[in-house]
Specification:
mainly alpha; three-stranded parallel β-sheet; 19 helices
């Protein structure tokens, strides 16, 4: 009976996460509209790109283009309609819940699997992993990390090279989606494998690294064609940066990022709630390490090693890294839900219910806020941007020019809406960079704090 109840709750959470899709709208942010413009250029002009979105961490570095090509089939099927792409994201999200179920069941058991799916599904109402918010390239890393973790764990248990090869291939895909997570992860597992393979006397397994050439081929080809432009930018950032770095400040920033960014993703709330949950998680983690059986301890130690190593490696980058911990979230949910096996049920149930209700409240509040806040429903709503563009085409009745004036200097959101709306007005041409007697100005109000 309890399993049926949990299944009903999961379906309800999935329905809430798709609420705005069902209303014919998506949260249409700058990153989404930028991706749509790139994909539209690939389709209309056959400009196949070797670069993805620029990295916010290192100037001159770009993510891989894989996210564009993953979305390309949905874009083609929908004729460029962002709602069709949004439903594709929803499908990806449903598949991701199945991945969480499969990985957690493999690592632990059915009870942990169903609890993990339940908690992640309610977290995903507000978390941009299902529908309500927007998808862009880092979510590929979020989706793939649980699978990577299981493959790596499986290889360490069996020493069968096929698991290492598949694991490294998945790591290459993670680097395509989010370099700031994938590259530190690459360093972390390479150090671990160096020790592990030396111990089992199978250094030849390092030849598996050649599989990375496939998912990383876009970076390699681009640099070969452009005189190692990205490699040079990477070297300059780390070896020619003369700015003094206060390690104490960086350490403090990392501690705050861990408490207020990573754990706030797990439990959306104010600082006190987030810190309280972080303390509970760490205490329970230490308790479980003592009580768990040896196979379970290996799961916890591996998660702890990857997380702590990533945290230490991130100290070499002085900027903000809160979002880069995001791919750890699914594993953190699975690890937390496994605590029920080793701590008193009353304690676990109480913490779980609090987490569930807080996430449910945050998700429902986000849905209501998106409906009532004009600052959100305006420039960040696909339906509203399309409405504005269609009004302009209906009013013009002839060729015209449009100018975008937006706090986002590239005005991606309004620009793609104008390109898409033109499909319904084949006799009217619009231009953004050619002078015309008839000109429209699309002006977006600045944020309240500017």
């Amino acid at each position: 009976m309890i399993r049926i109840f949990f299944l009903i709750l999961i379906v309800f959470n999935i329905f809430l996460s798709a609420y705005w899709l069902l209303q014919g709208d998506i949260h249409y942010d700058v990153d989404v509209s930028r991706d749509l413009l790139v994909i539209d250029d690939i389709v209309r002009n056959f400009h196949l790109t070797l670069l993805g979105p620029r990295s916010g961490a290192i100037p001159g570095i770009f993510h891989g283009p894989l996210w564009f090509y993953v979305n390309l089939p949905a874009f083609l099927i929908g004729g460029g309609n962002p709602l069709v792409v949004g439903w594709f994201w929803f499908l990806l999200s449903a598949i991701f819940l199945l991945i969480i179920y499969w990985v957690s069941k493999k690592l632990f058991d059915f009870e942990v699997a169903i609890l993990s799916v339940l908690l992640f599904s309610v977290n995903s109402i507000i978390n941009p992993s299902i529908g309500l918010k927007n998808f862009y390239n880092p979510y590929g890393a979020v989706f793939l990390f649980p699978l990577f973790f299981w493959l790596f764990y499986r290889y360490l248990n069996t020493s069968r090279i096929k698991y290492l090869i598949i694991c490294l291939f998945v790591l290459g895909l993670i680097i395509q989606f989010q370099m700031a997570f994938g590259i530190p992860l690459f360093v972390t597992i390479t150090l671990y494998l160096g020790y592990f393979l030396f111990q089992i006397k199978r250094l030849s397994h390092f030849l598996s690294y050649f599989i990375l050439l496939l998912p990383l081929s876009t970076f390699i080809v681009f640099d070969l064609k452009h005189n190692f432009l990205q490699l040079d930018a990477f070297i300059q950032f780390f070896y020619k940066n003369n700015q003094a770095v206060n390690l104490l400040d960086v350490f403090g920033n990392r501690a705050r990022a861990l408490l207020f960014d990573f754990f706030d993703l797990f439990s959306p709330g104010k600082n006190l709630l987030t810190v309280s949950f972080a303390i509970c998680f760490l205490i329970l983690f230490m308790v479980v390490l003592r009580k768990a059986s040896y196979p379970m301890k290996k799961v916890y130690w591996l998660f702890g090693y990857l997380f702590l190593s990533f945290w230490i490696i991130s100290l070499f980058y002085p900027g903000n890294v809160g979002n880069y911990f995001w791919p750890f979230l699914p594993l953190a949910v699975i690890i937390f839900c496994s605590f029920y096996k080793f701590v008193r049920r009353e304690i676990f149930i109480a913490i779980f219910i609090i987490l569930y209700l807080v996430n449910l409240y945050a998700g429902v509040s986000a849905i209501i806020e998106f409906r009532t806040d004009l600052n959100q429903r305006g420039p960040h709503s696909w339906a509203f941007n399309l409405y504005v563009a269609q009004r302009i085409y209906k009013d013009a009745k002839r060729d015209f020019r449009y100018l975008n004036f937006s706090p986002d200097r590239f005005a991606y959101q309004q620009r793609y809406a104008m390109i898409y709306a033109r499909k319904n007005f084949p006799n009217i041409n619009s231009f953004s960079s050619v002078k015309k007697p008839l000109t429209y100005l699309l002006e977006v109000d600045p944020p309240k704090d500017r």
